[in-house]
Design a protein that fits this description.
10 helices, 20% strand, Rossmann fold, 380 residues, single chain, 15 strands, elongated, 4-stranded parallel β-sheet, alpha/beta, 9-stranded mixed β-sheet
């Protein structure tokens, strides 16, 4: 069991961190013994633990007690851990070697982590603020030049390596099935259920433009084949008959998805209310965000999706900023589907610093596949 002693402001991000590092943990409780205690406060309290891992970019009295000598402190360094470069976005403190074992160094060979023996137990001292780094990665995100570096995964791997190297075993739920190197989660954001609900609106005119002028340009630029062009023109020619109900709606996505993904259950995020563009949307033509369907219009399909083993989630409109609206959207989809547990992904990638709290207070379930949106900093 890993015990956590963290600053009050870090408690929420600690919980997010261990949603990714799936191993037993809890905030430290009195009279409990732990295999490992991770500390981000200035002082290391009296606690029964085989291993102490302390993170922090400030020198503290506990450093002197463990005979750890700080050197310099600066922002924007890069760690070198087993020849892997790990960018840090907050402050970093470096240390004198002073006979300690070195855990990691900066790209300038300054020592950023040491291991010492103190009070009859091993203490690992890292000169950066782990959970503040995690908070930055999940909220602001990395700059483009670091996009290829899986920084958060590396932070987890470093902590895991140090715990195992200290002789402490971990029980961890791996992120992939046994014997597999990766897994795929199939998800669909359903913004349209067909072209029939769109008559003489921007969606219809946009389809006609892309399927005529745009398609010809696509052939000229060799982006689509002549066969694709002919198929597109056939769809355009059938449009009046689709509106009359005499021809199949070629934009209905569900039948195609169920056919090509047979025996591969996916998560479908469905809109709770039609004709709602959403609040606090400042983008150009924000009114186009509203959809022409909602969950009530696809009741037959939701039943078929559930029978096929698929999941249903809320394709949220205003849940990103309003608890009341979030609960209303959750309630609408729950009533139409009969599901008690639902996840959410926003219709547009809108968020602010309060988004996580708002979604939690709205009552969404993050244990199902239909969870946060990773692109916006949340789990899927």
């Amino acid at each position: 069991m890993i015990g956590i002693i963290a600053k009050t402001s870090e408690r929420a991000i600690v919980e997010e961190f261990f949603q990714l590092f799936k191993t037993p943990w809890e905030f430290v409780q009195e009279d409990r013994a732990y295999d490992v205690v991770v500390v981000t406060t200035d002082e290391i309290p009296e606690v029964d633990a085989r291993l102490i891992v302390r993170y922090g970019s400030d020198a503290a009295p506990s450093d002197a007690a463990a005979r750890i000598v700080a050197r310099t402190r600066r922002r924007g360094v890069t760690l070198d851990y087993r020849r892997t470069r790990v960018p840090l976005y907050g402050q970093a403190l470096t240390f004198e070697k002073s006979g300690a074992d070195v855990l990691c160094v900066t790209d300038e060979s300054a020592i950023a982590g040491v291991k010492v023996q103190s009070g009859g137990r091993a203490v690992l001292r890292l000169g950066y603020d782990l959970f503040q780094e995690v908070a930055f990665l999940l909220s602001a995100g990395q700059p483009v030049e670091q996009a290829r570096v899986p920084t958060l995964d590396i932070h987890i791997a470093m902590l895991r390596d140090w715990i195992l190297a200290a002789g402490v075993s971990l029980m961890e739920i791996p992120p992939t099935p046994a014997g597999q190197s990766f897994m795929v989660s199939l998800t669909h954001d359903i913004d349209f259920i067909g072209i029939r609900p769109h008559k003489l609106d921007h969606t219809m005119w946009g389809f006609l433009y892309r399927s005529t002028v745009g398609a010809v340009r696509g052939v000229a630029r060799r982006r689509i084949s002549v066969r694709q062009l002919i198929r597109t023109w056939r769809a355009v020619a059938s449009l009046p008959f689709v509106y009359l109900g005499w021809a199949k709606d070629f934009w209905n996505p569900f039948e195609w998805y169920l056919r090509v993904e047979k025996n591969l259950p996916a998560t479908y995020f469905l809109i709770p209310f039609k004709h709602r563009a959403g609040d606090h949307v400042s983008a150009k033509h924000a009114e186009w965000r509203a959809t022409a369907y909602d969950i009530a219009d696809v009741s037959d399909w939701t039943a078929r999706l559930l029978d096929a083993g698929c999941e249903i989630g809320v394709h949220g409109i205003d849940a990103w900023h309003s608890v009341d609206n979030g609960r209303e959207e959750l309630r609408r989809v729950a009533q139409e589907t009969g599901l008690a547990r639902l996840g959410i992904r926003m219709h547009w990638l809108l968020r602010d610093e309060n988004t996580v709290r708002v979604l939690e207070d709205s009552g969404y379930d993050y244990d199902s596949t239909a969870g946060y949106n990773e692109t916006a900093g949340y789990r899927c």
